[in-house]
Amino acid sequence: MLAYVVRRVLYAVPILIGVNLVTFLLFFVVNTPDDMARMQLGAKRVTPEAIEKWKAERGYDKPLLWNSQAKGTAALTDTIFFRKSVRLFAFDFGAAEDQRNIANEIRTRMWPSLALAIPVMLVGLAVNITFALFMAFFRATYLDFWGVVVCVAMMSISTLFYIIGGQYVASKLWHLVPISGYDGGLDAARFLFLPVLIGVVGGIGSGGRWYRTLFLEEMGRDYVRTARAKGLAESVVLFRHVLKNAMIPILTGVVVVIPLLFMGSLLSESFFGIPGLGSYTIDAIQAQDFAVVRSMVFIGSVLYILGLLLTDLSYTLVDPRIKLQ
Asked: What is the pLDDT of residue 213?
C-alpha cells in the first residue's frame, strides 16, 4: 500500500511541474509583466516610470529565469520564476493586489465553500441515486420514459436559470430566505438553504440519467439473471445486487470530486454573495489579480491529482478483485 501511494505521488510530480510551467508561460511570457502593469494602471496613468514602479512593488522587475547580476544560488532564486512559480510548491502564494496574504484568504474562504459544497454533494448523491433507482425499477414503462424526459429537460436548462429563478421566487416573492449574503455559525443555514437546494435540483438531470445508465448496465449482467432465476424479488435484486456492484463507477465520480469541494462553486458563490474560494477566483479574474489566479490554478491542479489518487485507493475497498500493484 505505501509503495503504491509513493509511486502514484511521484507520478503526480511531473504533472504538477508541467502545469506550473504552462501557467508561468501564460502569465509571464505570453502576458508579460509590462502588459499586467498596463492593464492594472489604466490608459491614463501608463508611463514608463509608473510601469517600473508597479513591477518593483510586486517583484516583477526581476529577470524571468536567470539573474546574471546575482551571485551563487541567487542567480536562480532571485528571479520571477522562482519567486512566483517555484514557491507555489511550498504553498507560498505571496500577496494579492490588495496586499492581503493569499494563503490566509484561502484558509478563511475554504470553510464557506465547504459549507455549500458538501451538502450539495451528499444530498445530491442521495437524490440522484434514488431517482435513478426509481427509473431503473420501472424500466421500459411510462414512468421511466417521463423520468428520462425530465432529466433531459433539466440538463438543457442553464444553471443561471435555476439561480435567478430561485432567488426571484424564494427570496423576492415569498421572502423565505435571504437573496444573498453569508453569516457564520448556525445563521449560515438560512443563507445556504437556497443555494444548496438549487445545486441539488440543478444536478438531478445529469446525475439521474448517468446513474440510471449504470444501473441498467448492471441489470443486464449474468449475475442479475441468476438472482432472478432463484426467485428473488425485483426490489431485492435491485438494492442488494445491482446497487452494490454499481458502487465502483459511483465511487469514482464521488471520490474524485471530494478534494475539489474546497474550490467552491463559481456561479453559486458569486450570485449568492458567499465569501468562498469560488467567488474569490471570480473577483480575482475581474480585478485582474494575477497572483490570486495563479494560486487558484495551482491549488486546483493539486486537488484534482489528489482526487485521482483517492479514487484509485478507494477501488480496493469496494472490489476485492482489484489489487494495488
From this structure: 93
Q: Record the pTM.
A: 0.87
CA distance 180 to 169: 13
Q: Quick one: which of 115, 91, 113 has its CA closest to 103?
A: 91
Question: Which of 85, 17, 86, 12 is closest to 304 using CA atoms?
Answer: 12
* Domains of the chain, residue spans: 2-90, 106-318
Q: How many angstroms from the chain centroid is the CA of residue 70?
A: 41
- The structural architecture, per CATH, of the domain 106-318 is Orthogonal Bundle (1.10)
Angle between helical axes of 188-219 and 142-156 (0-180°, round to 10): 130
Helices and strands, counts by H and E, the chain: 16, 0
CA atoms within 13 A on the CB side of 28: 23
Q: How far is it, in rounded angstroms, from Cα 12 to Cα 4?
A: 13
Chain segment 129-154, per-residue pLDDT in tens: 999 999 999 998 999 999 999 999 99
8 A C-beta contact, residue 124 and residue 203 = yes
